[in-house]
Specification:
The complex is a heterodimer of chains A (111) and B (811). Chain A is 8% helix and 41% strand. With 111 residues, chain A is mainly β. Chain A has one domain: Rieske Iron-sulfur Protein, CATH 2.102.10.10. With 811 residues, chain B is an alpha/beta fold. In chain B, strand 20 and strand 21 form a beta hairpin. Chain B is built from 28 helices and 40 strands. In chain B, the strands form eleven sheets. Chain B has a five-stranded parallel beta sheet, with no helix packed on it. Chain B has a five-stranded parallel beta sheet with strand order 9-16-10-11-12. The longest helix of chain B is centred in the C-terminal third of the chain and has 18 residues. Classes of the chains: A mainly beta (111), B alpha/beta (811). The interface between A and B is large, with 49 and 44 residues. The structure holds siroheme, flavin-adenine dinucleotide, iron/sulfur cluster (SF4) and FE2/S2 (inorganic) cluster. The site of siroheme has 21 residues of chain B, from strand 33 and strand 37. FE2/S2 (inorganic) cluster binds next to loops of chain A.
Chain lengths: 111, 811
């Protein structure tokens, strides 16, 4: 089951950028690509917890601001030779609003 | 008794539905708000452009309605549906129905700004709008502003331009038609329209429409003002759903319908742009015509289901070829094939997933669009023809050849280098004589020495001839997105006047659609340096420190370093720093190697407030994070020191006040020492000044970081002003010609100190010109970014979290 929470307008997130949503178990970064795709992943790099929301967004990836690991926004997987991954969350845009699936968020907290 | 069918809206969707219907089985009444029957709305653009007459685009005339026995009530707007009594209400009276069809289409969306209701502001939806626009075009020296650079807006703009109006398109997004085109194609389109004389402004936020009793101008939030006799609202359409909402019929974005086009109300159906089917609202006719077929069957009691078709887009502007279909975003498991020919203005991009085409964007040459569209719709596996796919059907069918085999099969007489007339045999001979790489072949045969376009072929000849001994050279590009060097990129930005990142990527054949963390910051810098007045800094292409104007730390906190001009401070400044440190719980205060104070461990969300506090005490950003001017270290000089020969502190402060805020290829540090004892360590800086009795020794290109290098003499001069001019000219020359991330010492090693001296010391005129260009740039950048980013709008747009779900998830 999904339970969508309206978190913000799409335009609140800059294209090729990210903003952060606070949750009970840490920050989730909401990314918007050049093509207006949105993705939600944990805002902590698998390397040393760098804030991914502050990285440079290109294609559907973000480069971590601390040591340049490149993380795929759709899978949360580190790219290239680096190994590791971050959690991803269901997210969608409807009528210009960004909706985040809260069931997953809660499941993670409970887990 | 025949079924009473009432249709609301005499537009394209209901028109097609009536054509499909066996009208003899119904008693039909057709209401239309417009005082005319159905016409081909799509062709309003050519009518506006004067290419077609209105009567040529009428699809159903009075004779047709009469023949079908349809009662037409044109010019009569339905204001209410009474579900219980099964009748519709118009100002003229009530009309009962057995079955009702809502086909009210959409209405132009008027962006909610002051003045949007002034006379002279029109939508682009029906003939009345077109007539209003043509009336405005008839004035003397008429000016139009079109708000919205999508399909509708651009068709209006091109048509109005053709009618002799001076046209400006204001578009909110980064590039035109962003829903149908990727940035590269959007850029080509913009270039084409600008070439025709249409003014295009992207990222334009309309603040207000101005005028007393008629529009006079459009004002942007950025402050720009565009005079206008006509404003066309083409910023989007809204499904016309009011009747359904008032009748408590389910409405999402459009009126909800099932596969049979039935609404949630009994005997009420809907089709066209006013409906939403399976969460999608359509704005092009192809799917609406499919709906028309389905609804005609449903009304006749047959079963039929609407299957959403794939819709493609073309822009109807004469001379602009553009096509897009499917999903052209990047994404997981997706690959792209890109073809660019900047000289001919051609761009094609196929998006593939699982060896199938899922999206197509074409610009400039759309001849093969049908072929690609067919492949997309059929879901054909294209792996067999992948290598030549992008070249279209003309290149298919022949024997597929691996490029190396092709080269191997070439005869010795085949010409490889057109510029220098070098044939394959000559190159093979050179290889056998010991030339084993591209450089050597270039030197011996001149092949690829001119335009270079054959270097790939030369390398293939090398590979074929040498076999496994051939080492393919790594591409010289600045990153995996391009094969171009920094120098080439700078040269081309300048010579072609490329003023945006997509423009550079398009013209220089970037291999990715939006670059990466290596090329984007470099391009952003080159554009800032080349077009300080025109180019808007792209924050999303900045490394975090420069985007947030603070240095990120290993734990995600930041450091804050206020400027202390020339290392001089005051009790008030120190007190303000101490207060800020306490107020924002700064864990570490460090005195830096740059003669100022670093407050480390500041939380991100505290930055703007802390900056505002520091600004209050007159402190500004020290740019300790920037590829820009960092510090100007000084010693106490002649004011206090018994050896001081000149006012080194004063000169250092002057230099810092002139140079601060400027962006450079890498960081720049200066120092001024009052005598050759050199307490300010001036001889290991990017530019250092040593004061002596007779004047000032200026030296450059030192380093004390990963490399240690003493500065080299630039010139010895007598006055402070001369020092300042030399420093400014040197830094501007560095800004204009160095590769991004080369410190001055690396750049000077590449270009040669002799050349630098020629440019900034020997040639007084050139020096003055460099200083003047620096000053033009500083007219924009000599400001405090902290003061800017502490403003309230940044608080909501940037610093605040997007949402707080801590309570939500805890429940
Ligand atoms: C704060 C400071 C150390 C200190 O506490 O004293 C410092 C701190 C950093 N230095 Fe430095 N450097 C500091 C003076 C220096 C100096 C000495 C000087 O300026 O006189 C040098 C050698 C001189 C030189 O630049 O050539 C220096 C050579 C470097 C280098 C090597 C540069 C090179 O071209 O080799 C780097 C790495 C880089 O920039 O790529 C670096 C990079 C850094 C960074 C920015 C690393 C990073 O990217 O996060 C550190 C940021 C810490 C922070 O969050 O504030 N820092 N750094 C000094 C700040 C000076 C200031 O007031 O702005
Ligand atoms: C300038 C322009 C160019 C276009 N170019 C293309 C193109 O190239 N390709 C493409 O596929 N599509 C194009 N379109 C879109 C296409 O015209 C529409 O998708 C199509 O017309 C929608 O059909 P419809 O029947 O749903 O609505 P419409 O054709 O808009 O018809 C709805 C009718 O209902 C009337 N109405 C509304 N409310 C009431 C009421 N309460 N009572 C009585 N009548 C009412 C309206 O006045 C209108 O006449 C273009 C549109 C425009 C305006
Ligand atoms: S010397 Fe190294 S560790 Fe120390 S501040 Fe400079 S960059 Fe950081
Ligand atoms: S923390 Fe992200 S790369 Fe090191």
């Amino acid at each position: 089951m999904t339970s969508w929470i309206d978190i913000a307008a799409l335009d609140d997130v800059p294209p090729r950028g990210a903003r952060v949503v606070k949750t009970a178990h840490g920050c989730v970064a909401i990314f918007r690509t050049a093509q207006d795709r949105v993705y939600a992943i944990d805002d902590a790099c698998p390397h040393k917890k760098g804030p991914l929301s502050e990285g440079i967004v290109h294609g559907t990836a973000v480069t971590c601001p601390l040591h340049n690991w490149v993380i795929d926004l759709q899978t949360g997987m580190a790219q290239g030779a680096d190994e590791g991954h971050v959690n991803t969350y269901e997210i969608k845009v409807e009528n210009g609003r960004i909706l985040l699936d809260s069931t997953r968020l809660m499941a993670r907290t409970a887990a | 008794m025949t079924c009473k069918l009432v249709v609301i809206g005499a537009g394209m969707a209901s028109g097609r539905m009536l054509e499909e219907l066996d009208t003899s089985a119904f008693d039909i009444t057709l209401f239309g708000a417009e005082p005319r029957g159905n016409y081909n709305r799509i062709l309003l653009s050519p009518v506006l452009a004067g290419e077609q007459e209105f009567n040529e685009i009428i699809t159903h005339d009075a004779a047709w309605y009469a023949e079908q026995g349809i009662t037409t009530r044109f010019g009569e707007t339905v204001v209410k549906i009474d579900k219980k009594k099964k009748l519709v209400v118009t100002p003229q009276g009530t009309t009962p129905y057995d079955k009702l069809v809502i086909a009210t289409g959409s209405a132009s969306f008027f962006i909610p700004v002051q003045g949007n209701d002034l006379p002279g502001v029109v939508g682009f939806r029906d003939l009345d709008d077109v007539e209003a626009m043509l009336a405005a075009a008839g004035k003397t020296d008429p000016k139009a502003v079109v708000i919205g650079g999508g399909l509708l807006g651009l068709e209006a703009a091109a048509a109005l331009h053709k009618q002799g109006m001076e046209v400006t398109v204001l578009h909110l997004m980064d590039h035109l038609m962003e829903r149908q085109l990727d940035p590269a194609a959007g850029y080509l389109l913009q270039k084409e329209l600008e070439g025709r004389g249409i003014n295009v402004v992207c990222k334009a936020h309309t603040a207000a429409i101005l005028g007393k009793d008629h529009v006079e101008a459009v004002l942007l939030e950025e402050g720009d003002l565009f005079p206008a006799d006509l404003v066309v609202m083409a910023a989007g359409i809204r499904p016309e759903t009011r009747l359904a909402i008032d009748a408590s019929i389910r409405v999402e974005r459009g009126i909800w319908v099932d596969d049979a086009m039935q609404t949630t109300a009994e005997d009420i159906y809907a089709l066209g742009e006013c409906v939403e089917h399976d969460t999608v609202v359509y704005g092009l006719v192809a799917p609406l015509f499919d709906m028309a077929k389905v609804l005609a069957k449903t009304l006749q009691g047959q079963t039929a289901a609407f299957v959403p078709p794939m819709v493609s887009t073309k822009l109807k502007v004469t001379g602009v070829d553009l096509f897009s279909v499917g999903d052209f975003a990047e994404g997981e498991g997706r690959e792209e094939i890109v073809f660019r020919d900047p000289a001919r203005g051609i761009y094609k991009r196929l998006i593939l997933r699982d060896n199938k085409i899922i999206g197509v964007v074409m610009y400039g040459d759309t001849a093969d669009s049908g072929w690609f569209f067919d492949k997309l719709k059929s879901g054909e596996d294209i792996s067999e023809i992948r290598e030549t796919l992008i070249f279209g059907p003309a290149y298919q069918g022949g024997e597929m050849m691996d490029p190396l085999a092709l080269v191997a099969a070439m005869p010795d007489s085949a010409e490889i280098c057109g510029c220098n007339g070098v044939c394959k045999g000559t190159i093979v001979q050179a290889i056998q004589d010991g030339a084993t790489d591209l450089g050597a072949i270039k030197a011996v045969t001149k092949a690829s020495a001119s335009c270079g376009s054959c270097s790939g072929l030369v390398e293939q000849v090398l590979a074929v001839t040498l076999g496994d001994d051939f080492q393919a050279p790594a591409p010289a590009g600045i990153c995996a997105c391009t094969d171009h060097s920094h120098e080439d990129i700078r040269r081309i930005i300048k010579s072609q006047q490329l003023k945006s990142i997509p423009a550079v990527m398009q013209e220089m054949s970037w291999k990715t659609s939006c670059g990466c963390h290596i090329c984007r910051p470099a391009l952003n810098y080159y554009l800032i340096a080349e077009f300080p007045l025109d180019y808007a800094d792209d924050l999303q292409s900045r490394f975090v420190n420069e985007r947030n104007h603070a240095n990120i730390q290993k734990d995600g906190t930041y450091s804050v370093v206020p400027r202390m001009w020339g290392g001089i401070t005051t009790p008030q400044e120190l007190r303000a720093i101490a207060d800020a440190a306490e107020k924002y719980n700064v864990p570490t205060i460090h005195v830096t190697g740059g003669q100022r104070i670093d407050l480390l461990g500041v939380q991100r969300q505290d930055l703007p407030a802390m900056w505002a506090d520091l600004n209050g005490a007159g402190l500004v950003s020290g740019h300790a994070y920037s590829k820009g001017l960092r510090t100007v270290k000084t010693c106490v000089g002649s004011d206090h020191c018994r050896f001081g020969t000149q006012d080194s502190t004063g000169l250092g402060i002057k230099l810092e006040k002139i140079l601060w805020g400027s962006w450079t290829p890498h960081k720049v540090k200066l120092a001024v020492s009052g005598c050759p004892r050199n307490c300010a360590e001036a001889t290991c800086k990017d530019l250092g000044v040593i004061c002596v009795d007779s004047g000032y020794q200026v030296s450059v290109a030192g380093a004390a970081g990963m490399e240690l290098k003493q500065t080299e003499a630039l010139a010895t001069v007598e006055t402070e002003q001369e020092v300042i001019d030399l420093a400014v000219a040197f830094i501007q020359l560095y800004r204009e010609s160095a590769a991004y991330l080369d410190r001055p010492y690396k750049w000077v090693a590449k270009v040669g100190l002799g050349w630098v001296i020629e440019q900034v010391v020997d040639d007084a005129e050139n020096r003055a010109a460099l200083c003047e260009r620096f000053e033009i740039s500083q007219s924009v950048y000599r400001t405090d970014p902290w003061a800017e980013q502490a403003k309230p709008e940044y608080q909501t747009n940037k610093w605040a979290t997007l949402a707080d779900l801590t309570l939500e998830a805890a429940q």
